[in-house]
Amino acid sequence: MRFSKPLLFIACLLPLAWILFATGQAINPIEFLTRQTGTWTLNFLLITLAVTPLRRLSSYGKLLLYRRMLGLYVFFYAFIHALTFFVFDHGLDPAAIWHDVIKRPFVTIGFLAFVLLIPLAATSNQAAIRKLKRQWQRLHKLVYLIASLGVLHYLWLVKRDLTTPLIYAAILGVLFLMRTPMARRLDGKLKFL
Prior knowledge:
By secondary structure, the chain is mainly α. It is built from ten helices and no strands. The protein has helices at about 5-25, 30-60, 65-90, 95-105, 105-120, 125-130, 135-140, 140-155, 165-175, 180-190. The chain is globular and about 45 Å long. Its main location: membrane. Heterodimer of a catalytic subunit (MsrP) and a heme-binding subunit (MsrQ).
């Protein structure tokens, strides 16, 4: 346990190292950076949502100790994704940013998902958990909406081959199904086999 969190911290930075290296080789570096940080935001969202079902299936309770760090990496990659959009695509021009947010539905959905992530990242600490108590859990259930918006953002962004966004949608659907009461009852029966 002593080394697992630092190792996970480093492992979660490896995609960024690869993105930065590959961006230099890309034909359109800004588009590449935007797409890859968006993809890794979704990857970390799905990984974070997979922690609870995996813990239940494996009975390895310590998996929950990694969920907060994984969730913060969701925000980290989403922040870089949004920053790329704000700075490189729009030169930090509020009017241009707002025009794009209103004009293009996939941008609207992505922007909304990013805004909803901010309070989750801001309250991902022990002090916030103690202060907010039951409200903290309610607030952090926004992750389900955010994940849905993220997948929808990806679906609306892609114009031709929908295979990859539909795979993300299917994985998210399975993760949602694993949280249903029926799936939990099935979990209990599987543990006795």
